[in-house]
Inverse folding.
């Protein structure tokens, strides 16, 4: 019978057999469930010879970098946090096209990650939090729990540094990954986190990106996400967030007319993200979030709720 405890035990043995006694292993951490569970499993097997690299691309949620880094350190992981926000903002400057923004973010990530990876002496392995659905999506061949294959998400790093790839979760489905994570003591707030796109808020700020817009969106998004947690609605939706629209609209504050930005709230129910329905959140909840955002976030005077389902709309706006 499959149990998370057996999986942990047998993976630890397999990893210890595969990874040489002096080999160092590099892993990119994102704050997501998969990379976090992969890190804990490898840490269980090889301790501080696992070197986690957690990059702040300046497009994470409010205080996410600090809080997730703190959680990782609390778990005893050997993690380096790299704040590369300015580098990402520089690469994004003036770009409005969604695919160009994605490319700039991806390219910058590879540059930053490569630079950090090269600092790890004795690095022989690149670990990845690849899970089974990722495997069947790609053309790679099914293999044992510990396999060696080349990978493309991290650019040419494996070839350049002559690294072998290790993917300890590649036979697991998402719910199994969560069970393994729970067994390894991953905190609830990471274990049950909504999916979050790699390009982050970069594709939730429509049009070009500036640090000021990021701050504005982070503030509005935090009000929404905090309210979902406080009302117990967070775990009833599959994904949620705020989107900063590239338009201004008229409002009134006291005797003054305002001309400020609009935020759209998006929350969906889904099984796998392939199709999704807009979440039927209670009107009182939406009213409360709207009031809080408009009162607390200077620069936003209008909040709208996205009632489009996928298909034909997508979950993200870009
Ligand atoms: P869409 O918008 O296509 O999103 O309905 C489906 C799921 O994919 C996520 N998403 C991304 N994830 N890089 C990612 O890592 C991306 O460029 C990207 N675009 C969309 C989205 O958040 C949702 O979970």
């Amino acid at each position: 019978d499959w149990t998370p405890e057996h999986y942990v035990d047998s993976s630890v043995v397999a990893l210890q057999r595969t990874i040489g006694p002096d080999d160092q292993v590099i892993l990119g951490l994102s704050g997501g469930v998969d990379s976090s569970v992969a890190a804990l499993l490898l840490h269980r097997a090889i301790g501080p010879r696992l070197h986690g690299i957690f990059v702040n691309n300046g497009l994470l949620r409010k205080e996410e970098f600090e809080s997730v880094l703190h959680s990782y350190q609390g778990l005893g992981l050997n993690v380096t946090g790299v704040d590369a926000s300015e580098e990402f903002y520089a690469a994004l400057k003036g770009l409005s096209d969604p695919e160009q923004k994605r490319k700039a973010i991806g390219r910058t990530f590879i540059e930053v990650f490569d630079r950090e990876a090269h600092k790890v002496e004795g690095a022989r392995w690149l670990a990845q939090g690849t899970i089974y659905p990722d495997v069947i999506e790609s053309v790679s061949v099914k293999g044992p729990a510990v396999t060696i294959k080349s990978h493309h998400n991290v650019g040419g790093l494996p070839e350049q540094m002559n690294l072998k790839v290790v993917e300890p979760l590649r036979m697991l489905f998402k719910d199994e990954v969560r069970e393994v994570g729970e067994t390894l003591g991953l905190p609830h707030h990471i274990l049950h986190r909504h999916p979050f796109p790699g390009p982050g808020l970069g594709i939730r700020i429509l049009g070009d990106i500036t640090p000021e817009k990021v701050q504005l969106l982070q503030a509005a998004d935090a009000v929404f996400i905090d309210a979902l947690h406080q009302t117990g609605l967070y775990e009833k939706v599959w994904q949620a967030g705020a989107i900063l629209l590239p338009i201004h609209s008229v409002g009134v504050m006291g005797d003054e007319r305002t001309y400020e930005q609009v935020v759209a709230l998006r929350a969906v129910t889904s099984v796998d993200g392939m199709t999704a329905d807009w979440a039927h959140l209670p009107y009182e909840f939406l009213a409360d979030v709207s009031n809080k955002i408009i009162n607390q976030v200077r620069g936003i005077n209008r909040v709208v709720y996205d009632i489009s389902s996928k298909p034909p709309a997508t979950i993200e706006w870009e």
In short: The chain is about 40% helix and 20% strand. The beta strands are 24-29, 50-56, 79-83, 123-127, 164-166, 239-253, 256-269, 277-278, 300-305. The two ends are 43 Å apart (CA to CA).
